[in-house]
Amino acid sequence: MPNPRLAGRYAKSLVDLALERGQLEEVYSDMLWLQQACNTSRDFLSLLRSPVIKADKKLAIVEGIAAGRLTELTAGFLRLTINKGRESNLPEIIAAFVQQYKDHKGIHTVKLTTAVAASDALKEQIISVVQEQTALRNIELEAEVDETIIGGFKLEIGDSLIDASVLYDLNKIRTQFLKNDFVFNIR
């Protein structure tokens, strides 16, 4: 069951400890690797969430997978979460850690959705326009392809959405036609 409060607390503790030990960048790299493992391996996620597999077996498997790849601080954190029975919350904790890292570094995520893959030049141009139009300086652009928008783009900046997609325009036109009694009654 999702528990964002718990994830935030565990993530904050890890961020604070990594800052104290001067290993924030290394732990961030480890967390990105673990996030990738959670996102790409259904088996790894099933292992973490399985109530049937005992904690000591989970610990042995996770340590075997992560051996030599993770810093001692991250490995210790994984042991702690498994020993406390919080391994099912690990994907949430990782996401919360990544977000807190970005907040600490002042990195803002901007999400670009296009119908076809955006070129690197276009991505750079969008970053520069966002920097000019907002107070955001340190921007990380996440590009996504969604063919259903037909053309144009969607740009998410924090809680704001700029929808300049063809699909949005078509839906607006459809709504206007449905509201227009004259056109609606012609049928």
TrEMBL record:
Q: Which organism is it from?
A: Candidatus Pseudobacter hemicellulosilyticus
Which residues constitute the signal peptide according to the record?
none
Gene3D superfamilies under this entry?
A: N-terminal domain of the delta subunit of the F1F0-ATP synthase
Name it: ATP synthase subunit delta
What does the entry list under GO cellular component? plasma membrane; proton-transporting ATP synthase complex
- Listed transmembrane segments: none
| Annotated function | This protein is part of the stalk that links CF(0) to CF(1). It either transmits conformational changes from CF(0) to CF(1) or is implicated in proton conduction.
Cross-referenced HAMAP family, in alphabetical order? ATP_synth_delta_bact (MF_01416)
- So what family is this one in? Belongs to the ATPase delta chain family.
Q: Which UniProt keywords apply?
A: ATP synthesis, Cell membrane, CF(1), Hydrogen ion transport, Ion transport, Membrane, Transport
The record's section on InterPro entries has:
ATP_synth_OSCP/delta_N_sf (IPR026015), ATPase_OSCP/d_CS (IPR020781), ATPase_OSCP/dsu (IPR000711)
GO molecular function annotation: proton-transporting ATP synthase activity, rotational mechanism
List locations, semicolon-separated: Cell membrane; Membrane
Concerning Pfam families, the annotation shows: OSCP (PF00213)
